[in-house]
Amino acid sequence: MEVLGPAIELSAKHMQRVVIDTDPGTDDALALLMALNSPDLRIEGITTVGGNATLAETTNNALRLVDHVAAGCDVPIAVGAERPARGSFSHAYHVHGADGLGVDLPAARLAPHPADAVEFLRDRALAAPGRIAVIALGPLTNVAAALDGQPEVAQAISEIVVMGGAVEVPGNVTPHAEFNIYEDPWSANAVFGSGVPVTLIGLDVTHRTAMHRDGGPRWFEGTSRSAQLGNRILANSFRERADVQEFYLHDPLAVAAAIEPELLTLRRAQVAVVTDGGERGRTVASYGDGPVKVALGVDVGRAVEIVRKLISN
Ligand code: RIB
Ligand code: CA
């Protein structure tokens, strides 16, 4: 894959302490399983946002998943935005299932954190300036709100790894726009313009990173709750979508890249988001200098290996 212009390499620095902002969502769920199992990440907390499903559903899915596979891990889950900066979320039940997850899980015994997502993000960032990264797997509503009018928060967050955008490839909601950005283009513009370093992991690389229908029992090995839940999610997703041959690892790739940045070939840019009209949600990169590192290449084999290793066991 030809990289457009001088590619840049991320430092080999691994991000250790993260807040994961998420709208689970089946691929979010796999990403959470990876992060919960990874020895390289310390999850400071999970913040939920509407998007793939309603906020109540994404929050319940996060609570149930963490309780099911990591009870006692003491990862706070803070509730975020029920709607985008303007309008409402359109949801993606046709992709993720009726409740956003599509598989049964026991009712959660966990309760959400008393602080809301914005307070939580700000508090954690300010408590450890320069040491907390955000992995954003849904619409950027919570992240933009946490940064809004808070230059010291922007200064404190070390990096935002965003699953979102479609820069040199078509979108998955419209020909121009990827779902997370389309759902809240105003917040995406605010985050990309905040000056906080962003790694943008869009469809340019996630549409090349997938588990295949014919993978069957070899998706995730082992008998742990993580492996079993991962296999149930994939099996149900392929069962419910007979025409789909690949399960795109959108959010799992963001977590894999947070663990092993060398997976990606990146190009620095300013990124602006179209907020209105037929090209709403389009991510436009002006390459050269800028706070956003756009992922244009990926080591697919290594990425899938990381996903499988972290969920299997
Ligand atoms: O376009 C894919 C992204 O939108 C993923 O994060 C998926 O979970 C949905 O949020
Ligand atoms: Ca997501």
- Total strand count, please? 11
* CATH architecture label name: Alpha-Beta Complex
- The neighbouring-strand order within the major sheet is 3-2-1-4-5-6-11-9-10
CATH superfamily: Ribonucleoside hydrolase-like
Q: How many alpha or pi helices?
A: 12
Q: In CATH terms, what is the fold-level topology?
A: Inosine-uridine Nucleoside N-ribohydrolase, Chain A
Ligands, ions, cofactors: alpha-D-ribofuranose, calcium ion
Largest sheet entry? 9 strands, mixed
Give the termini separation.
33 Å
> Which class in CATH terms?
Alpha Beta
Q: Mean of the pLDDT scores?
A: 94
Can you describe what's shown?
The chain has 12 helices and 11 strands. With 313 residues, it is of the alpha/beta class. The strands form 2 sheets. A 9-stranded mixed β-sheet has the order 3-2-1-4-5-6-11-9-10, with helices on both faces. Strands 7-8 form a two-stranded antiparallel ribbon. Helix 5 packs across helix 8. The longest helix is centred in the first third of the chain and has 16 residues. It binds alpha-D-ribofuranose and calcium ion.
Observed structural traits:
single chain; 313 residues; alpha/beta; Inosine-uridine Nucleoside N-ribohydrolase, Chain A; 9-stranded mixed beta sheet; two-stranded antiparallel sheet; 12 helices; 11 strands; globular; binds alpha-D-ribofuranose; binds calcium ion
Outline:
With about 325 residues, this protein is α/β, with parallel strands linked by helices.
Topology:
Layout: E1 17-22, H1 26-37, E2 42-48, H2 55-70, E3 77-79, H3 93-96, H4 117-127, E4 132-136, H5 141-147, H6 151-156, E5 157-163, H7 179-183, H8 185-192, E6 198-201, H9 203-206, E7 210-212, H10 225-240, E8 246-248, H11 250-259, E9 264-273, E10 283-287, E11 292-298, H12 300-311
Parallel strand pairs: 1-2, 1-4, 2-3, 4-5, 5-6, 6-11
Antiparallel strand pairs: 7-8, 9-10, 9-11
Helix pairs in contact: 1-2, 1-10, 1-11, 4-5, 5-8, 11-12
The structure holds alpha-D-ribofuranose and calcium ion.
